[in-house]
Amino acid sequence: MPFRLLNLPPEIRDQIYHEVLSSDTARRPPVDDDYPASYKFDLGILRANKQIYHEAKKAFQDNVFIKITTPWEESIAHISSEGRVPIITTGPKAENFRSFHLWIFIDAPDQNRLLRPFGLVKDLHSFSVHGAKLLPSVEEALKEEQTIPDPSAEECLEKATALKDAGNASLQAGDYASALQQYTDAFAAIHITVSGRKRYIHADGYYIREVMSGPYTGQRCDYVRLLIRVKLVANFIQTYLKMQDWEEARFWGKRSIILFRASLTGDDDDDLADETKWRWVNASATMEFPARTEMGKILYRTALASRELGLKKEMENLVRAAAVYLPRDEIVQAEKRMLDQRKT
């Protein structure tokens, strides 16, 4: 005998409608941290009959929908990728949709937001902006900004250092959100953009010279930049450990360890549990390279995250590697001795 939905009490039917048509049910996790989640609603229940349609439609309309109308088709991709806003549908379906809570109509671009980024472009031979409705104040502000010179490599390094130190103070005070933001800003100061788990490194050539002034005088700009980068990664991991976000701590550490190993051996395999993949550590024990101590901290802090996640073999390999780079760290050396005793 077929089950009849309409035989159930209205309250039960309403619960079923909300379960089937809720945004939580329709949500599909993002395939990448740089993209928003997607939503796929199954509206088959609305086609059952008129009564069910009218009852279930109310549940569907309890979801919050925002309708955006714009004359620029490329805005769709921009809203999704740059704005990280999930798009349910586009085209005629979106045009005919009426059950929205907010309607945003984008008719003309904000001239400031559209043009002011060009103020970052310096030393042009000529520059002109054309448009029937161009505001003179916007063009004047843009050209004035172009006359401001870019900060020197020395200024970038000093700003990054100051932001890193401010992040360390926030970390010490237990303000972990501020610490992460200050570390992110420190990366940005040396032309490295952090977006979620992604890092985008720019302007390498800008730092290939000697530091001419300030606290790093006489050192190589690229050397100092690398040192700051590794310190920031170590601090990111430490912050996530304090937050007990073991997955994020392990991710930041693991990525840097794999990159470092690949720079020495060419091996970019991401398996940290395979003991045979760690022979490079002892081989590099006598090598001198920037941020040796900080790399040891990354190894050890990643080991702490791996331990919390139950990755025993990975943790052991990381502790032993950390002990090579941190020979005077009593805590790390004590842990290595414990591991060696268990092995024997």
Number of helices: 15
Distance separating the two termini: 69 Å
Could you say which structural class the secondary elements and strand pairing correspond to?
A: mainly alpha
Rounded radius of gyration (Å): 28 Å
H/E series, N to C? HHEEHEHHEHHHHEEHHHHHH
Oligomer: single chain
Strand order of the largest sheet: 1-2
Sheet-strand content, in percent, reads 5-15%
Averaged pLDDT: 87
Gross morphology is flat
Question: Percent of residues in helical segments?
Answer: 40-55%
Largest sheet: 2 strands, antiparallel
Low-confidence stretches: none
Task: Give me the count of strands.
Answer: 6
Secondary-structure topology with pairs:
Blueprint: H1 10-21, H2 23-26, E1 27-28, E2 38-39, H3 50-60, E3 66-69, H4 75-81, H5 92-96, E4 102-105, H6 111-115, H7 136-146, H8 153-172, H9 176-189, E5 192-195, E6 198-201, H10 221-242, H11 246-265, H12 279-283, H13 292-308, H14 312-325, H15 330-343
Parallel strand pairs: 3-4
Antiparallel strand pairs: 1-2, 5-6
Account of the protein in words:
The protein is mostly helical and 344 residues long. 53% of the residues lie in helices and 6% in strands. It is built from 15 helices and six strands. It has helices at 10-21, 23-26, 50-60, 75-81, 92-96, 111-115, 136-146, 153-172, 176-189, 221-242, 246-265, 279-283, 292-308, 312-325, 330-343; strands at residues 27-28, 38-39, 66-69, 102-105, 192-195, 198-201. The strands form three sheets. It has a two-stranded antiparallel sheet. A two-stranded parallel ribbon has the order 3-4. A two-stranded antiparallel sheet has the order 5-6. Helix 8 runs parallel beside helix 10. The radius of gyration is 28 Å and the shape is flat.
